[in-house]
């Protein structure tokens, strides 16, 4: 995914562009594009079920394990990482984590549907931390952002650095 496309889709969470990319990947068929995404996830040992490429269908299904497999595979560098919204600064995260240690640091993709809320991305640093939180429920409202996301931020900010090989010896 070129950087321009990643920024155009991920930053503002542009579902129309995501659907267009899925259609392109599927040779003109969004369903075939979604199927290719499912096959790619399966090759990583992960599962997902996609009805469309926009991510808006309530019957789309993805697990935190799948999201983490993708994040681990991509790493905290490159076009997708660079396209992710930055906490307290850009895209769908501009209004979140402003007064936390993660402002300007955490990079993540939000997901907001009537049946689910999600936040998946990275806390880059000396020891990059990938994370994924998906909250499901038909009566889901903004409670995920209001209560869980700040608690997640505090937990991620408190992750200690990994010991060095010398420390382990």
Question: Secondary-structure blueprint of this entry?
Answer:
Elements: H1 3-10, H2 15-25, H3 30-43, E1 48-49, E2 61-62, H4 64-74, H5 79-83, E3 107-112, E4 116-123, E5 129-136, H6 143-157, H7 165-168
Antiparallel strand pairs: 1-2, 3-4, 4-5
Kindly state the percentage of residues in helix.
Answer: 40-55%
Residue share in β-strands: 15-25%
In angstroms, what separates the terminal alpha carbons?
41 Å
Biggest sheet, open or closed, and with what strands and sense? Answer: 3 strands, antiparallel
Gross geometry: globular
Number of helical segments with 4 or more residues:
7
N-to-C series of helices and strands: HHHEEHHEEEHH
Q: What is the CA-based Rg, rounded? A: 16 Å
Number of E-state strands? 5
Structural class by SSE content: alpha+beta
Largest sheet strand order: 3-4-5
Q: Please tell me the overall pLDDT.
A: 85
Protein architecture, described:
- With 169 residues, the protein is of the alpha+beta class.
- It has seven helices and five strands.
- It has helices at residues 3-10, 15-25, 30-43, 64-74, 79-83, 143-157, 165-168; strands spanning 48-49, 61-62, 107-112, 116-123, 129-136.
- The strands form two sheets. Strands 3-4-5 form a three-stranded antiparallel β-sheet, with helices on both faces. A two-stranded antiparallel sheet has the order 1-2.
- A hairpin with a 3-residue loop joins strand 3 (107-112) and strand 4 (116-123).
- It is globular and about 50 Å long.
- The mean pLDDT is 85.
